[in-house]
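Deliverable D2.4 — example input (structure tokens):
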């Protein structure tokens, strides 16, 4: 990565319009489907319609990363204890060129803020095992056994808000 890319400024915002949502899905396609070979038919799901999506964009509008928050019944079905006060962070993806810029951490914090705004008390996530240290540095704690998701090893993690 060149020095100018390391100093690019970006913003993280809620993806509220169609263009932002499409940018989120494009980042997910690049990272999960393209890089990690997750089948496209399982990358997108019924939860995308009601989830809160966040988007990181470079100052020139190029999308750098995305994440989503499930809340309510959708989140309760995913978390370990069915607690409706716990949100579910997922589909966190950062483009290859933006890794190392702090984009992932900024996206996690934006999802947490969206969770707080909805009165949630904690956020759960299913972390790819290679990313456990990233989430631990952000205050998440792993629980439960390792499990496969899309053929990739994961662990459940949680952080109280």
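Example output (designed residues):
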């Amino acid at each position: 990565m060149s020095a100018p890319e390391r100093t690019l400024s970006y913003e993280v915002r809620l993806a509220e319009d169609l263009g932002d949502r499409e940018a989120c899905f494009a980042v997910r396609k690049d990272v999960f489907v393209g890089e990690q070979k997750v089948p496209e038919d399982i990358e997108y799901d019924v939860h995308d319609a009601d989830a809160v999506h966040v988007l990181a964009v470079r100052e020139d509008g190029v999308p750098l990363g995305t994440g989503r928050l499930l809340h309510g019944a959708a989140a309760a079905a995913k978390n370990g204890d069915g607690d409706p006060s716990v949100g579910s962070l997922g589909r966190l993806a950062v483009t290859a060129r933006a890794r190392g810029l702090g984009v992932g951490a900024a996206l996690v914090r934006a999802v947490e803020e969206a969770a707080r705004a909805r009165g949630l008390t904690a956020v759960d996530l299913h972390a790819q095992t290679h990313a456990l240290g990233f989430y631990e540095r952000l205050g998440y704690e792993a629980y439960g056994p390792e499990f496969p998701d899309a053929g990739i090893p994961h662990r459940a993690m949680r952080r109280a808000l």
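The first helix runs from residue 3 to 6.
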